[in-house]
Amino acid sequence: MNLSLDQVLALTGGKILNPAPEVTISGVATLAEACPGEISFLGNEKYFKDFLATKASVVLVPPSLPEYPQEGVVFIEVENPSLAFNAVVGHFMKAASDFVPGISPAATVEPGVKLNPDKVRVSAGAVIEAGAEIGDGCDIGPGCVIGKSAVLGKNCKLYARVVVRERCILGQNVVVQPGAIIGSDGFGFLLNKETGRYETVDQVGIVVIGDNVDIGANTTIDRARFGRTIIGEGTKIDNLVQIGHNVVVGKHTVIVSQSGIAGSSQIGDYVTVAAQVGIAGHITVGDKAVLAARTGVMSSLDGGQVYWGAPASPYKEAAKQFAAIRKLPDAMKEMITLKKQAEEIRALIDQALAEQAGN
Fold first, then answer.
1. What CATH number is given for 103-317 in this structure?
2. What does the pLDDT read at residue 322?
3. Which residues carry out catalysis?
């Protein structure tokens, strides 16, 4: 479990900057909270004071810092301290994992399910319906429901009460946080003008999740009306996100909390969708676009640009618009003053014209 300096170097790809005694690392912590025997990192200049005062035994640092604590700390230089630190955290998490294969007596696994009970864990209260396929290394949490003929690739981790509905497909190394639902019915209703009532449109498609996707708590991804709703490889989805039917999300895209994507829209690769973004249906967002928080996307957007506002505009343009709006109250006051002055001047002119006419 513990790490030597050589093992830390192997995990992080870093190099030691100062003479270093042999140190054993037993845990990770923030710069302010770290104790001897723990490792931390400097990933943001806001924490430089904490860095100078840290009691950590080892700190991962970026290149070319202007100042270091005087003694007692080993500095390992890496290109990206946060990413390197994550590798160290991963080591300790793996060491602390309680994964023990087996099927709980309180779980329900219907006949016809394909899994190796010696290589998966199915926790109490979980239900796996007939025809489902569960890959080796999968960890199915308490109360999860895996629908008929659903497929989970190797090493998927489903936390408590996740639902993967019938025929949906998850790739390898997919992590789904508690309460998320994959394959719920899309929001499909048509108004029958004869009856004046909305009628349900059957949703007969599926959801396909690529490898190495993370899905946040209470997020919902709707199954396609027909065909597939697709989440591309490596995409990371936060808590409380809604993705509509037949949406296609590209590879390595990030979608942050409380965002919603309406049906049949296509989101490119490496797109950033910040918090509370709303994306209308049947539109396209290009690769590497960035949608700032609370952006409202009502028409297709080119890739490679930063957008903000509702409707979405290029960021610089939207910022100018916002700045102009903030000046409106003062502009209104000035306009009222000018209007009053104009009325007074007009009154004086009218009076002068009247007096001239009287003479």
1. 2.160.10.10
2. 78
3. 245
